Amino acid sequence: DADVTQTPRNRITKTGKRIMLECSQTKGHDRMYWYRQDPGLGLRLIYYSFDVKDINKGEISDGYSVSRQAQAKFSLSLESAIPNQTALYFCATSAGQGSRQPQHFGDGTRLSIL
Amino acid sequence: AQSVTQPDIHITVSEGASLELRCNYSYGATPYLFWYVQSPGQGLQLLLKYFSGDTLVQGIKGFEAEFKRSQSSFNLRKPSVHWSDAAEYFCAVGSFTGGGNKLTFGTGTQLKVEL
Fold this sequence. Notes:
The complex is a heterodimer.
Chain A: E1 4-7, E2 10-13, E3 19-25, E4 31-38, E5 42-51, E6 54-57, E7 64-70, E8 73-78, E9 87-94, E10 104-105, E11 109-113
Parallel strand pairs in A: 2-11
Antiparallel strand pairs in A: 1-3, 3-8, 4-5, 4-9, 5-6, 7-8, 9-10, 9-11
Chain B: E1 3-5, E2 10-14, E3 19-21, E4 24-26, E5 32-38, E6 44-50, E7 56-58, E8 64-68, E9 73-78, E10 87-97, E11 100-105, E12 109-114
Parallel strand pairs in B: 2-12
Antiparallel strand pairs in B: 1-4, 3-9, 5-6, 5-10, 7-8, 8-9, 10-11, 10-12
């Protein structure tokens, strides 16, 4: 079983709909992250959480919200989806202190908004 | 703020040839540097990381990278490329913020391997 699991893997929806992407992990890591990937832009950080009570905005948080329901679960919501939020979304986790710990990624959710 | 530049968007090499993927970073302190690989339909897999010490680091799948502070570079190399190495490669720099790590990624280099 994957250590970082994202659901759904693919989603097609319409403009204006509310969408939730879910991430769960079995690695026991405290830190979790949400990124979006767009062709030619690499990965950009949306939100990150260092523990259950700590949520922080990344560089592109507008239009998104998150919920850290438990250490192992971190959900990303699009309150009212718009077409330019069509992208590949990744969840990642890391352990320990500081930036020495590498991040471990899920397989991604491909989201298309019509 | 930190940044990462991968100047080559696409690279094509023949199977068996050597490979070098370029990465330049901008960061005010000692950088923590990573290379990740993304195969189609997959997430990112860590190839190798540099924190300190020996500037030549070895990774998985026969990859290595060399940290050159004077050039602000962390180029990825492989002596002999295999067809299965075709993928997208991302360089990233880590920063320490409020007790945890944040990664800034480059825009990626797509590697094509010709048989």
